[in-house]
Amino acid sequence: MLVKPDWNIFVSKFNYNPQEYFEWFSYLLFCREFDLDKGWRGYKDQPAVEKEPIEIGEEIISFQAKFYQAELSKKKSELVKMLEDARRHYPQLTKIIFYTNQTWTLNYTEKVKTVTQTEKDIEALASSLNIEIDWRTNESFFHSP
């Protein structure tokens, strides 16, 4: 049985620290996706990512998990810092899976839909750092089976 995520219920259930539980939940999803049935190593207050990067084929992958109360476009400075820190601390990193309960929004101008400038800037920075961001957002990832 599939249950559509309700982040208000999540916050009420884990109200003393929803970010911590969202990180744990994302960690479980990451381990499941990469068959890490015994978990994966990481450090307390690890910079830029939640756990040490793993090598999968040609890629060096880690993840970040953020439970935000605000829109992604309002988190630009935090996202920039995360990418810059990721490159500095993990020079071989090629991909970050970014789990978040939020979803990017679109700009609508004269009936034309475009991504926000913040999303463009974050994607451009990631590209310049040779890091792919795999966005696992509310509307796409968490609403899928």
Rg (CA only): 16 Å
Topology as H/E string? HHEEHEEEHEH
Structural class call reads alpha/beta
Strand content: 15-25%
State the low-pLDDT regions, or none. none
- The helix count comes to 5
- Sketch the major β-sheet: 4 strands, mixed
Helix fraction by DSSP (H/I, runs of at least 4): 25-40%
Alpha carbon gap, first and last residue? 10 Å
Task: Give me the side-by-side strand order of the main sheet.
Answer: 1-2-3-6
- Number of E-state strands: 6
Dominant shape: globular
What value does the average pLDDT take? 92
Could you please describe the fold and organization of this structure?
- With about 140 residues, the protein is of the alpha/beta class.
- The protein has 5 helices and 6 strands, in the order H-H-E-E-H-E-E-E-H-E-H.
- It has helices at about 5-15, 20-35, 75-90, 115-130, 140; strands spanning about 55, 60-65, 95-100, 105-110, 110-115, 130-135.
- A hairpin with a 2-residue loop joins strand 1 and strand 2 (about 60-65).
- Helix 3 runs parallel beside helix 4 (about 115-130).
- It is globular and about 50 Å long.
- It starts with 6 loop residues before the first helix and ends with a helix.
